[in-house]
Design a protein that fits this description.
The protein has helices at 4-35, 44-62, 66-90, 95-116, 118-123, 139-160, 163-172, 180-200, 203-226, 234-237. By secondary structure, the chain is mostly helical. The longest helix is centred in the first third of the chain and has 32 residues, at 4-35. This is Sugar transporter SWEET1. Belongs to the SWEET sugar transporter family.
Length: 238
């Protein structure tokens, strides 16, 4: 049995780590606004953040997990949606068209999932399905399980997105495309959420975050092999 104070501290730490991760895209959006150009950036990561966090917000609502689940992922939805909007504003065709289509697709996906789970979200459901559930056939528990599986899939997609970058780093023997601070923040976030999921006995939470830890470890290994990228001049960071 975990002491309540320790659990509260873990929830606060997991929330803070997630908010730090979702702050990173805002820095990218700031650079886009400053340059008024998206460069070679892709809108796909922003769309993935919105889709992923939308699922986990609903998952948290059904399980009445307001902090850290709902709180942190609601911020993620807002962050991803804002960055996607900034991308669309400053992108030129065909990137602008692609980003607009992604926004419509993600919005439709979020609405569809919310409608499918509306009853479960309203009534709530236990994390573990019991035969004594007061709901007929435990539909609400099954809905939560389905959302958990969907969330795991969304997380896997997000964690797989850097794989092409890792391949490029290995091929070029340069970590210029990686950001050490982001890697450290991602590792910390994954560790905290994996620990939270383990203590809560929720495999849908700890499972994908263990994968996130491994992904961050792979990036850390590349920094050890090829060194950290050179720090940009201060004027370039403003």
């Amino acid at each position: 049995m975990v002491a309540p104070m320790l659990m509260h501290a873990l929830k606060a730490a997991a929330t803070g780590a997630a908010l730090a991760i979702y702050y990173t895209p805002l820095q990218t959006a700031r650079k886009i606004r400053r340059d008024q150009n998206v460069g070679a950036l892709s809108p796909l990561p922003f769309a993935c953040i919105v889709a992923n966090c939308s699922v986990w917000v609903l998952y948290g609502i059904i399980g009445r997990d307001w902090v850290p689940m709902v709180a942190s992922n609601a911020v993620g939805v807002a962050s991803g949606a804002y960055c996607l909007g900034v991308f669309i504003r400053f992108a030129k065709p065909p990137a602008k068209t692609f980003a607009t289509q992604l926004r419509l697709l993600v919005a439709g996906f979020a609405v569809f999932v919310a409608l499918q789970a509306r009853l479960a979200a309203w009534r709530g459901a236990p994390k573990k399905v019991h035969h004594s559930s007061p709901y007929p056939l435990d539909v609400d528990g099954e809905t939560r399980d389905a959302l958990g599986l969907l969330g795991v899939g969304a997380c896997v997609v997000m964690f797989a997105s850097p794989l092409s970058t890792l391949a490029t780093v290995w091929r070029t023997r340069s970590t210029a495309s990686l950001v050490p601070a982001v890697t450290v923040a991602s590792a910390a976030c994954s560790v905290l959420w994996a620990l939270y999921g383990l203590l809560e006995g929720d495999a849908y939470v700890w499972g994908p975050n263990v994968a996130g830890v491994l992904c961050s470890a792979a990036q850390g290994l590349l920094f050890l092999l090829f060194g950290c990228p050179k720090v940009a001049p201060a004027e370039d960071l403003v």
